[in-house]
Amino acid sequence: MSLQMQNITFVHPGMLWLLVALPLLVVWYYRTYKRRYPVLKLSNLAALQHTRSLRGRLRSLLPTLRILAMGLLIIALARPQQTLKEEQIKAEGIDIALVMDLSSSMLAQDFKPDRLEVSKRVAADFINKRPYDRIALSVFSGEAFTQCPLTTDHAIVKNFLAELQCGLLEDGTAIGMGLATSVNRLKDSDAKSKVIILLTDGVNNAGYIKPLTAAEIAKEFNIKVYTIGVGSTGEALTPVSRRSDGRYIYGLARVEIDEALLTTIATSTGGQYFRATSEESLAAIYDEIDQLEKTEMEVTSIKRYSEEFRAFAWLGLLLILLELLLRYTVLRAIP
Prior knowledge:
This protein is α/β, with parallel strands linked by helices. It has eleven helices and eleven strands.
């Protein structure tokens, strides 16, 4: 029987005090050794002074076997148990929709390597911190669609997130379309808390749904919207046109984010607007949202015990049997 010496408790720990008696028993044994065994006196033992048979050496180990056996039986009497802990987690999860801007300006290089790659990386870290929530992913540029519906399979969400790239959709910034698409994914949810995190780096200039109209719809369905404006201040190296082979031509362009609109969207739904000017500040924003939207969890601990005394008892009995067998057979003393 294998026994891992961790998480071990004793039902009767007081029995372990009997182990203190073992050293006293050893002292008593050797002090009374000569009285228990007869001594044969010879006139001269000089010839036998440096000789001792293997049988004699082994016989001196018999008391050690008995002491070890008694120690093991005492431990068995203390009844060691291994604690096997289980947890049952009941989580009141939050439904979260991530909305990512895929307009060409997200390739601006004021973030390294660019805004999109940094946004994807930080969003993936945020997903890792929400193990009990359902998460959806929507994207937009000149139009919008759902990349991944609500799911608790976060590996799939992160796979979709990692594959995002600019140029898949008609270029532009349809904030209202992106928000409305994510609202459509959350409106039928029965979760107690529904949250949208919308990330963009521009000004609404496309789509047939106005951003404030989408915000009103979100409010009607009790969906809280957090908005994040991504981009440094001043100018940034940004795609300004595209070659026939699909590659972007970069040039300096002014960073323009409609912060007033994003603030209105957030505050009207009970959320907040954040501005990220670096990867560090974007990570801090996601951390703050993570703290603001805590998942309620009820954790029930269940403890099971595995009885481990049998191993000690059987080993102790085996040593006693071995000691008796040796004492009265091959190591028997002649009276």
